[in-house]
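Budget justification note: compute hours in this period were largely spent on complex prediction jobs such as the one shown. Inputs:
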Amino acid sequence: MSTELALLLGLALSPGFAKGPAALDVLRMTLDASEAAYEGEIRVATRKGSQELLVRFSPPARYRRQLLDELGTPALTLVSDGRTEWVYDRRRSAVWKGEPTDPDFKPMDPDEEYGLLTGNYAFALGPEDEVADRDCAVLEVRAKRGSALVQKLWVDRDYGVVLRRQSFGPDGSLSNEMRFVRVSLPAEDAGWDFSFRPPPGVKVEESRIRPDPMELWEAAAVSDLEPRTPGWLPPGFVFESVDLVPYREATLLHFRYTDGVDALSLFQCPSGLEVSFLGAGGADARSVRLAHSSARLALQADRKLLEWASGDRFVLIGSLGLDALRRVADSVK
Amino acid sequence: MRCPDNEQWSAYADREAEPEEARSLEAHLSGCEVCRLTLRSLRAAKRVLGAEPVPAMPADLRRSLRRSIRDMRPAPDERSWRILLGGWLRPAAAFSLAAAALLFVLWMKRPVPRPTEAQAVPADLLLAAHDRFAMTIPLASAEVIVSAERPLLAGAASREEEGRDVY
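Corresponding output:
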């Protein structure tokens, strides 16, 4: 793919090539998983501060991501050999084993996702730039409604890997940024080890979350809950799938919505099941009014959690504004 | 390439396939929508069954399900016809699978007990599920999500202290 990408980018960046289609070609390549192995060091900056990660990737889907603490020691490690993912939280001395996140395991196929993205967002190329000594095409992503800049992506010209990404909030301010400060691309996967051996004495648990996206009718057939979904969604958002989340003897429904860039989750829990905000911004939770009831609102990083009861209990999670979340909540019948 | 049979997909879903076979199945999966649907239905069915012993499926239902899945698989030279027909066969095949899967799921359905006393599901579990979903969004940054550190992406409340899940 690297030759193909280089050719496309060459065309895209040539003076005679139309700007729109070239940007979309870069987008297409960005959406594909890298076919080249790479390893490097990433800095992630959010409003709360910055953190560093070590990453190693080998196609098609093997990876090791290590979040470093202030001493440069891995505090959180995610390792996947493509079939099993291990999450090791050193500070909690805990290991979980489960299925890795698979971007391809979902009802929406790549063409549908591409259609959703290009329907909601406009893409344009900015001036070329360099990241970690590599030449990059710069892709600007703007919402078609309002034309606000949503993301800027620095895409490696040869391999299509996103080497830098800036995400912007609704007010146009920078909400987070990831950037390779060092990268080896392509890297020679000389026997990289993507297995994981739990440290002595650390108990391994099965992960509770095993994504199994399904259609509404499937969820209705296998759950005791009658699915209750919102009648209104923010412009551009569509239903993606519903998943089941087991918790003790109960099963929760997880309705998943997206506009191609943002994710919005609605959880439906059986009546009688409370939701504990402990550790999820609960200390700052406050009460807000909905049309027919009251709700609790908590902030967690860039996300908001809105929780209310209406027969069953519901929790809405997303980075949308509060008014939009309220409107979604009010429309759940 | 000929589509793998149900037993192969079942072994793959249970992670019992040999590594080489698993790689071959994954390669096939990337280019075959029918098998992606088959695997998804199998996984849904396995989730329903959970750890319960698997009862024998009635022979008629098993045959019906197999026939439905087999019928919707295009022969190699049929794919071009599907394209020429503008996807006419696709809805029919999807309907066939949907009907069979619905039958299968309904047959296996067992009631999920509602909680009998006040219980509290940790919001962290929901955040983890949300983050897992967010990581599948095309323009999501896995690194930014991981760096949020919480919730644990495994979403596992693994230990309990005084009846409360601890993360």
